[in-house]
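Hey, resending since the last one bounced:
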Amino acid sequence: QTVLGGINSVDFPTAFAAKEEMRSWKFLQLNPEDLREPTHQDVGLRNVITQSGKYLAAALFRIQQSDEYSLKEVSRELAGFLPNFTEVNVLDDKANQQFIIKVKEGGGKEFSSRVLSEGTLRLLTLCILEYDKKHTGLLCFEEPENGIHPFNMKAMAQLLKNLSADFLTTEIPLRQVIVNTHSPVLVGEMIRWQDDTNVSVWLSRLHSLITNINNQKIKIKITKMSPVTKISPAIKPGRHISLRQLPLFPISEQERKLTLSEVIRYLETGNPEDVIRVIQNE
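The structure tokens again:
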């Protein structure tokens, strides 16, 4: 047990508050089976989406009961990714004592959550979370690009941004999103918001470090996170700069330039111009 985990009283209010906040962090590991499954109306029914996506239908039913218009917003958000789907509904199936999600096509044909693809269900979950007032705190999501068509990557970036709060506004629930990705397309979309103080992009690299363990020098591998920023850490005379524009953790000018150089090379791997030229020449 950690020191922080052993604090169970308000004798240390700051540490206790930090512990409670960390307990609320949600690491999304969406399971297609949980996403497809209707929510059974058993005793002790939960209506908050779990990290695996369980209780998705019950959560959407709760949202609908508190604000019917929210279903239209969820439908509009999903249609931005998948134009064929025009309407999202949640049914109270009293005969089978369950809540079930159904999605309608433009032609009027309906599909239950049981037959939707994993990619569609992942998108639907994020759309529902955006309009769920019970969703607060930190949301961690691994590789959000999985199952997403490259054409929809810009919309995915915007959806992730919408899932977070503008910390200059105090009237909305406090939300933060941290994602890791291997998609140069998604990174490219995020970098477009480099002037937005609510968005930051970091590069993760594996470094070698020489350290002393039991009086012996040992080489170990560590993961180092470097902010991707064009702003120099040095404030030149006469230059006005907001403190919000500075990196949270100071970095050297050399490291900043090296990070930018690596990110540029990484983004170039997702540049299809050479392939397009080959196709056009053929």
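The beta strands are 26-28, 39-40, 85-93, 98-105, 110-112, 137-142, 175-180, 202-213, 216-227.

Sorry for the duplicate.
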